[in-house]
Amino acid sequence: MGLPNSSIAYLLVRRAPEIVKRPGFNRAAGPLGGKATLRCRASAVPNAEFNWGIEDEGHMIHHNTTKYRFFDTQLDHTTFQNRLGHAHSFISVGPPSAPEQPSEIEIINITNTSASISWIPGFDGGSDQLFELIYQDMDEHQIFTLNTSLSNIILNDLKTKHGYSLQIRAINARGDISDLTQPLMFHTLEEMPQNNGGIGDNMLLKKRPISHSTIIALIFGLLGLLLLNIILICYLNRRNKRRKILARNSQQQQQNGSSSTGSG
């Protein structure tokens, strides 16, 4: 018998489309006569079909693109549907604007020298945006800045057991800037003790369950040892008996020899 094996199986539950509600997904912006990018996201099983249309025109736009040219500002909507149902989302299109500030800033993980940060981007104002992180060492009053286009990042090279204040703002391609978020305070941890491979390491080791093959091997091993002991005991007993018989025969021969000599 071999070692047990395992695998991960994914279960997909059929369900109607559900529109993902995120800041900025219900708005779009673009210059008059130019292009505007509308972002819509939905989750469904099986996959949802995306049908775009202009409100009050009474028909859907049937072509594969996520960019539409609008000549005036109006309310557009999107329909998400599969065989199990459908959902609607209305996206308003307006002129370019400053980006919205990020929301739901969260400290995911903190060590003695780093901090993992995540946030949810806001509406970009109609053009690509990046995020500027401004964090200050509260103990030494040093200010650091970092730019990224992602919505999560790891701040490295932080001081151990120091307090920090973090703020984030969005900057889009036109140079428009959002307001700074409210300061978020966090503290780095103490320096992690070095591992010397002592008792602490052994306590952290997970106990693995004994497999059936291991149990069977142990049983056969014990039976083999028991059989070997029985054979050894039998051999020793037979050898002792043989020695006793030889000793007894030797004594009898000596006695017979003595009696024959005396009679002569």
UniProtKB/TrEMBL annotation:
Pfam families on file: fn3 (PF00041)
TM region(s), chain numbering: 215-236
CDD domains in alphabetical order: FN3
The Fibronectin type-III domain, residue ranges: 101-191
InterPro entries cross-referenced by the UniProt entry: FN3_dom, FN3_sf, Ig-like_dom, Ig-like_fold
Domain Ig-like span(s) in chain numbering: 17-52
SMART domains in alphabetical order: FN3 (SM00060)
Gene3D superfamilies per record: Immunoglobulins (2.60.40.10)
Keywords assigned by UniProt, alphabetized: Membrane, Transmembrane, Transmembrane helix
Protein name: Uncharacterized protein
Organism, as annotated: Meloidogyne javanica
